[in-house]
Amino acid sequence: MLGSAGLYAATCLAALLFLVPFYLILRNALATDPEITGEEWTFFPSDIQWGNITEPFDDPTVDFARSLWNSAVVGILHTVGTLLVCSLAGYGLARIPYRHANKVFYAVLGTLMVPTAVTFVPSFVLVSSLGWVDSYRGLIIPGLFSGFTCFLFRQYFLGFPRELEEAARVDGLGYWGAYWRVVVPNSLNFFAAIATITFISGWNSFLWPLVIGQDPSAWTVQVALSSYMTNQTVNFHLIFMATAISILPLVCVFLFLQRWLVQGIAQTGIKG
Q: Which residues form the signal peptide (predicted)?
């Protein structure tokens, strides 16, 4: 009983600590700059500034609505593409007999040891030579393959019941048919977990969109947020309100997929 109470108290404390940043964002988003930077702290603004909600969209210097749309397009297409590419690669490494499969797998793992800074400049040169600067292609395609995601899919598929695939092959399905009609429908929890993590990662990416999206019309929401901080001025309540709006889609995605996220993480298949 005492141990359960202690575990419950620790869980509640961890949840409160997790929610503190969200509280600060919401509190400051609805406050004035003097209240944010003032010496006296109030739990919530004495006069809630509801007009702050529309201020990011009314700013003539930044097309915030366009940046939200760009982030949504990049996040969704990046997630779908990564799931397709990495799941196929992981399934091939786990199921298709090939004498060099382990070597390919080790090469994929080797990409995890290469710092991003090493490949950043060559990737930009390649994207620039293809004319993909300021385009969705340049923002999405270079990041479709992830060595770590491929590793997770391979480990998961190693633990997938072979009996289901063998039954599919008896019915005349090949590797592609077994993957698409048997494996994927029975792995939706894992796919949802990877999709959640990938979408959040794509939405929050900053450095690559900053370099590729040189025109303001190609800015993602993270780049737009950075534009609110300059050497001359910092509009605190505008930054916090824009931040609150930008994390709202992530919260919605997480709440919608949280059940599948937990189940999918439990099925990551590291045991394989």
A: none
